[in-house]
Amino acid sequence: MIGALVLFQSLGVKLAAIWALLSAGGIGIGLALKDPAQELFAYLMILLDKPFTVGQFINAGSTWATVERIGVRSTHLRSLRGEIVVMNNSALTNTTILNFADMSSRRMIYSLGVTYDTTVDQMKAIPSMIEEVINGVDNTNFSRCHFTEFGDSSLNFELVYYINTRDYTTALNAQQAINLGIMEAFAQQGIEFAFPSQTLYLEGDTLSGKAS
């Protein structure tokens, strides 16, 4: 085609309009192929870099799902609720991906607070109580539990333990068993969980309108 155009131009044929048309067409084709080329490049990145493979459980943005199929343009994911989520490969490669396939254990860290009515003896007993609860649940390892701070409305503990499984449902079952076990142990010992509250100490007869 280029050779033919050059021949016509050498014969004196005016090809300015044709060159302009071809230039505009080239720009249009380039814009039309931009998205497919971007998806193809993202597909090649997934194949070469392997941030995930079929069958692995991942988190991408707000999506928690298992990879079912990796296509040239998009990837099919099976969410926890069961529906298929189709995501463009470029969207996946441009977001942070958490891949749980190679994770040997899950580190759980969170805090819990008890009321200021809790006695010193009860405070001393809480770490060992929680350790006993965690050690009684399968696939878990206790790490530590410490009284960390005097909060505005609670006495706060920080708890860390590990769940030794890659299966998401099994991990949730273990976490639920630990939470319920802690609640039961606290109830047996008369320990109450704290919630945001405020106590006002009034001087004199303020409520009756007199000076305090």
Please provide a written account of the structure:
The protein is α+β, with helices and mostly antiparallel strands and 212 residues long. Helices cover 40% and strands 26% of the residues. The chain has six helices and eight strands. It has helices at 2-10, 16-32, 34-49, 89-93, 120-135, 168-189; strands at residues 57-60, 63-70, 74-79, 84-88, 97-99, 106-114, 140-150, 155-163. It has a five-stranded antiparallel beta sheet. It has a three-stranded antiparallel beta sheet with strand order 6-8-7. Helix 5 (120-135) runs antiparallel to helix 6 (168-189). The longest helix has 22 residues, at 168-189. The radius of gyration is 32 Å and the shape is elongated. The chain starts with a helix and ends in a 23-residue tail after the last helix. 15% of the residues are buried. Residues 205-212 have low confidence and may be disordered.
Short description:
By secondary structure, the protein is α+β, with helices and mostly antiparallel strands. Helix content is 40%, strand content 26%. Helix 5 runs antiparallel to helix 6 (168-189).
